[in-house]
Design goal:
The protein is of the alpha/beta class. The strands form four sheets. It has an eight-stranded parallel beta barrel with strand order 5-6-7-8-9-10-11-12, surrounded by six helices. A five-stranded mixed sheet has the order 13-14-15-16-17. A two-stranded antiparallel ribbon has the order 1-2. The longest helix is centred in the middle third of the chain and has 16 residues.
């Protein structure tokens, strides 16, 4: 069992020692450095491996052409693991052709039907996501684990706050972080009882602080890799705010081996947001970061439009640099001196600067092209 030795695990519940839970969570601030190493297709997670970015397709998996096209866009954006829903046999069979045409590990998302989990693995899924509590009983779990064991396919045990059992809800008086963890560990036991520890754990809630607390409690008890995310976070605007706060608090404590920013919208936005969160936390290099000032009465150029176009431009350059888009000479290059490259607006013109040093003045309508030329020749 890959539980921490200082935890007492009992069937149906988690025993506690006298010390506070928060103190125990702080004992292992870099949980990801000590998690079990798990192989997912061509990628490895756990044991101090880099935190990998996941996303999920929103196409019909049966539509191979549309699904592959979306995965290719996700790959281009920086997605490193992708998940597809498998609601029926047609979707399970489609996985084989989808996998043949993509370049990142493929995870099958399974709900309720254990046969779909087996079919997904038989058609090449690199990992499956199940809730062992809702696929039909111990014999069905045993059948799924048997196939996973034969093929050495990891199982992601996924529990959401909305899927807690009635007994857990009654025990804790509703949905709580403690209840989420107890439910998840109970599901992990169901896999372990079949002599299998090739496991990834995922616990999610749309309540940001509850989700953070649950991850702190979980990390004190297990050494399995953890997939982190704030479920049902919302639209690109609200979802990004909730995810940045929640994932920042979780990942910043050293918890989390893979991450998904769950947004209602184009999944490419999930990947872009995850990259920025990881870079902001110092967990990712090789990302093009754009910083810009909030504008004020000194601004004499279309800074908002310009900053948006520079962000779009960033997707085409696999550079590990910081580019500043500033509204006036006060903010740049002075305040943006730490940027590798930048532009600062003036009256119908702007300054192009590099490492805090002014290169030249450029007419406003040529600022983007001047910046792009510098990027094209970046060394």
């Amino acid at each position: 069992m890959l539980f921490r030795e200082d935890s007492i695990i009992v069937k149906g519940g988690v025993g506690r020692k006298e010390e506070s839970e928060s103190a125990r969570a702080k004992e292992a601030p870099m949980h990801r450095d000590n998690t079990r190493k798990i192989q997912i297709g061509s990628r490895q997670i756990g044991g101090g491996s880099p935190v990998l970015i996941q996303s999920m397709t929103n196409t019909r998996t049966q539509d191979v052409q549309a699904t592959v096209a979306q995965i290719h866009r996700l790959e281009q954006a920086g997605c490193e693991i992708v998940r597809c829903t498998v609601p029926d046999g047609e979707a399970a069979r489609a996985l084989a052709e989808i996998k043949r045409q993509i370049h990142i590990p493929l995870v099958a998302d399974i709900h309720f039907d254990y046969k779909m989990a087996i079919a997904a693995m038989e058609n090449g899924a690199d990992k499956i996501r199940i809730n062992p509590g809702n696929i039909g009983g111990p014999d069905k779990v045993q059948a799924v684990v048997k196939t996973a064991k034969e093929r050495q396919i990891p199982i992601r045990v996924g529990v959401n706050s909305g899927s807690l059992e009635k007994a857990v809800l009654e025990k804790y008086g509703g949905v709580t972080a403690e209840g989420i963890v107890e439910s998840a560990l109970d599901k992990v036991h169901m896999i372990e009882e079949n002599d299998y520890e090739n496991i990834v754990i995922s616990i999610k809630s749309s309540d940001v602080l509850m989700c953070v607390r649950a991850h702190e409690l979980l990390a004190a008890r297990i050494q399995y890799p953890v997939h982190v995310g704030i479920t049902e976070a919302g639209t690109v605007w609200s979802g990004n705010i909730k995810s940045a706060i929640g994932l920042g608090l979780i990942l910043g404590q050293g918890i989390g081996d893979t991450v998904r920013v769950s947004l209602t919208g184009n999944p490419v936005e999930e990947v872009k947001s995850a990259k920025l969160i990881l870079r902001t936390l110092g967990l990712r290099e090789g990302c093009f970061e754009v910083v810009s000032c909030p504008t004020c009465g000194r601004t004499r150029i279309d800074l908002i439009g310009l900053a948006s176009r520079v962000e779009q431009l960033a997707a085409d350059y696999p550079l590990d640099i910081k580019v500043a888009v500033m509204g006036c000479a006060v903010n740049g290059p002075g305040e943006a001196r730490e940027a590798d490259l930048g532009i600062a607006g003036g009256e119908k013109e702007g300054l192009l600067f590099k490492k805090g040093q002014i290169l030249r003045k450029v007419p406003e309508d040529q600022l983007l092209q001047a910046l792009q030329k510098e990027l094209d020749n970046w060394k």
